[in-house]
Design a protein that fits this description.
Layout: E1 4-16, E2 22-30, E3 33-39, H1 41-44, E4 48-55, H2 61-66, E5 73-80, E6 92-93, E7 103-109, E8 114-116, H3 118-122, E9 160-162, E10 166-178, E11 183-187, E12 197-202
Antiparallel strand pairs: 1-2, 1-12, 2-11, 3-4, 3-6, 4-5, 7-10, 7-12, 8-9, 10-11
Length: 207
Amino acid sequence: MTQEIIGKKLGMSQVFEDDGKVAAVTAIEAGPCTVTQVKTVDKDGYNAVQLGFGETKRLKSSQRGHLKEAGQFKHLREFRLDDTKEVEVGQKIDVGLFKAGDLIDITGVSKGKGFAGVVKRYHFAGGPKTHGQSDRHRAPGSIGAGTSPGRVLKGSRMAGHMGNQQVTARNLEVFEADPARNLLLVKGAVPGGKNGLVLIKKSGRGK
């Protein structure tokens, strides 16, 4: 059985724990997801399950043909499995997979910050504020040597596009799982902005 689900980040809030302390939590609309395709080693070369999440009325003709047995979904994501014997097309998967105290990994796309300089992007210190320096306060400084190697090395930290990348937050603790409302409360922050798509799975690592 799959241990993963698709969700939508709703935003952040705060809750009171049993000892009276306040904890920051992220609210996620997790599922319900529907199995839209099951892949097997014999047919596809590997075991996987494809899940659909979010209703939509507009689909391309190829997508309608692919989803004719399961319904129309806005988002489709595939997850690898060791065994697909217990999974079948049309099966529903909801937030009941998780319970309070579980550790989970959440993958999302981080907020895009646009073009950013090295001070904001990589926390460079910037140049000196005196000794004749008038316009180097937020500049990167030297980016390479002269004769050897005589070029700028690949991967050097420079100004550029910041954010808008896939990020995984690991070992987040589930505060509450409510199947009746498809709601998952997770302690701490989750990658991405409000209404962003997230992939949730049980963590393979302990604290």
